[in-house]
Amino acid sequence: MTYNPKYRAGWILLAVCFISVLVMTSSSSNSHTRNVAASIFDVGSHRSRQSGLEEPKWNGSQKAQLADNIHEEHLTGRPLLRHRKTVNKQLQSCSHLDRPGGANILINVANPEGTMCRLSFQWFDSIPSDRFNPNVIPYPPGSQYPYMGIALQSLMSENAELVQQYTIVYCDMDWASSDVFDQRMLTCMNQPKVLELPDWLSPEGTCTPLLEPGLGHIDPRIFMSPIGEPLMMVSTIGHTNCEHEFVVDLRTIVPDLGQKLNVETVPIRFGNLTVLPNATPHAEMEKNYQLLFDDNAEIFVHRGIAERSLTSISDYYGMHDLAVDSLAPECILSLGKSVPDPDRQKVTLEQATNSLRVTLCEYPCEPTLDNTVLMSIMHVKYVHLDEVYYRRYVVIMNATAPFRILARSSNLIYMGSDERATVFTVAMEWDHSHFRDRSKSFANPQKAVTKRAADVAKLTPDMNSLVNDYYHGWLDDTVMITLGVNDQESAFTHINASQLLDCLELCPQ
């Protein structure tokens, strides 16, 4: 349609109506997001009053300041969390637009097709084994290769055909294309090497007879601590039970890793496999632990997502128990209650990944305890005979102890995954090295430059204890999530943090 002066009045009227609609929509959106922000931290305040431990308090002015921070002009106007479904009464009217069945479909921003990519730990010499349960750590910009990959390797035991022996291998990885369909992937650029870890026997009678000979070191979780330690949590034979969780600094095992990650000067706190404490009597198999870091970089061991328990690692040499043992809120527990056939299926709630810290607005907004939380991914595991199926959910917690659960996501679906397969989430890491872009301009360049300079000056670890290059990110940063497929293959996906935190359900108590 072309412009005709004869219809000038009509064009003007149409323009006025259009502008009015935009203003009303913006006002409604801002009000809605302010309610969301206030609701999230209302839950946290309510739980703080129930806990004997000190947590940040959120008053009305702080909530208003949080909402103002979210909607400041330099933040591009994108809402804090684009909720479409929530249990909070104020937001019941949110719709299910483009959310089939309430699921959150995650699109890979590193792949033009939007689907998850494969990881290949094979080398030119073929091996009679599977390499799966992948973990990936980004190297700094300018490194020879962009990533280091670690995987679990399964080999048949020499003593019994039905018993498998597990080891952990690592290699440097780079982008490549698959041979057949030319799909984007990561592959080893040198021959995978075995992580040399100490081994021992558990006390007699603590293991099921067929379990101990094939246990080895299993279920590795690799992640960076807030101060830059490349840590690995791993399960192996326990000192007092069959299987237990340990932590170790990978710089003590992988040659030159500190130099490659540019963290040579960071102190090593876990020079050997260090047992992670459990205040309760040990079960035969202890697994799926998680480390949480508060704003002072103190480490807490988080055991269990349904029945939660915390222990603080007080210093380099000692550990003490934190008197926090509680059930998760109903928003978590309810996930294990909806079982089509409870007589035939076993359902458990499990922690899946490590934790990360995220500020609920875009860079360069200033992280505070009022707008920053911890996030991780949990599994709802369904077992029927030898079939296993997982559903995945993001869990949102306070950034300080006792890390009360504030919200959870809807079911996560990785675009390109086959939901008939056993797809489990292994670990996640901020990929600041390859996907962080701080050069974007804003709607008002003059104001943006002035305000940005003032804000950025506050966003260094020296000025803000919540900020670091390893454990912390903003909504416009990218998370790399690694996946296991059928205990045979490995995959990964890059997800924008704002998409990962989409469609949250609040967890009132």
Short recap of the structure:
The chain is an alpha+beta fold and 509 residues long. The protein is built from 7 helices and 26 strands. 17% of the residues lie in helices and 33% in strands.
Walk me through this protein's architecture.
Keywords: Signal. Residues 1-28 form the signal peptide. There is one protein chain. The protein is an alpha+beta fold. It has a single domain (100-506), classed as Tachylectin-2, Chain A (5 Propeller), CATH 2.115.10. It is 17% helix and 33% strand. It is built from 7 helices and 26 strands. The protein has helices at 8-50, 60-71, 257-261, 330-333, 432-435, 445-456, 497-500, and strands at 104-106, 117-120, 130-138, 147-156, 164-177, 184-188, 193-194, 218-224, 230-237, 243-249, 274-275, 289-293, 299-303, 307-313, 320-327, 346-351, 356-359, 372-384, 387-398, 405-409, 412-414, 423-430, 472-474, 478-485, 489-496, 504-506. Strands 2, 3, 4, 5, 6, 7, 22, 24 and 25 form a 9-stranded mixed β-sheet that branches. Strands 16, 17, 18, 19, 20, 23 and 26 form a 7-stranded mixed β-sheet that branches. It has a 4-stranded antiparallel β-sheet with strand order 8-9-10-11, with no helix packed on it. A hairpin with a 6-residue loop joins strand 14 and strand 15. Helix 1 (8-50) packs across helix 2. The longest helix has 43 residues, at 8-50. The chain is globular.
